[in-house]
Design brief:
about 200 residues, alpha+beta, Arc Repressor Mutant, subunit A, 5-stranded antiparallel sheet, 3-stranded antiparallel sheet, 8 strands, globular
């Protein structure tokens, strides 16, 4: 029996982000432990409760905090999407969310960057169906820092979207490099990602 392709309405984007606050960031996930692989967050209204399982010791820790402007939970609440915290590692929070489209990715990343010290786009995946089955994945961790920076900016600014008016020159100016340098970085990044995708399919 032929497999039925999912409707466009069933398709969503999974976005994986790495975020860090400035020095003195009072996120209870960070204040409870430097690194943890099991993190539960419950942010309701102006109050946040977290449970973390520190990597360096046994037993869960519980912490409380206030949902402030630099709280990633607040940014996601205002965007209408749910953050799924995967882990805390060396003071950085790795969070996943399922969003409707690339415009939502841009909005969330822009909002996070307005209040947090560091926001990195780690991975994008097209998912479909109630079980969120991945159909296509872009893993930015395989790129060099400069390739990643250029491609991430291009994605966030909508450079690859036909209906968004962003030029290569605009992106190059924002990065402080020439158009030819940015073009080379984007070509190298895209070639790397396409090669990796074919190797994954072949494997």
């Amino acid at each position: 029996m032929a497999e039925v392709a999912p409707d466009d309405d069933d398709r969503r984007l999974r976005v994986d982000l790495e975020v860090e606050g400035a020095d003195g960031w009072e996120c209870p996930m960070i204040s409870q432990t430097v690194s943890a692989t099991d993190v539960t967050v419950n942010a309701v209204g102006e109050e946040c409760t977290v449970e973390v399982d520190p990597a360096s010791e046994d037993g869960m820790r519980r912490g409380h905090g206030e949902v402030t402007d630099d709280c990633l939970c607040k940014v996601f609440q205002e965007s209408g999407y749910v953050p799924h915290v995967q882990r805390v590692e060396d003071g950085a929070v790795f969070v996943t969310s399922y969003v409707d489209d690339r415009e939502a990715v841009r909005e969330i990343v822009t909002a996070l960057r307005a209040v947090l010290d560091r926001v990195r786009l780690v991975r994008l995946a097209v998912v479909a169906g109630p079980d969120s089955t991945e159909q296509a994945t872009v893993d930015l961790s395989a790129l060099t820092p400069k390739q990643r920076e250029g491609l991430e900016l291009a994605v966030v600014r909508g450079y690859f979207d036909a209906d968004v008016d962003v030029s290569l020159g605009d992106l190059a100016a924002e990065l402080g490099i020439s158009k030819s340098a940015l073009s080379q970085r984007l070509r190298a990044a895209q070639a790397k990602l396409v090669t990796d995708a074919f190797e994954e399919l072949a494997g």
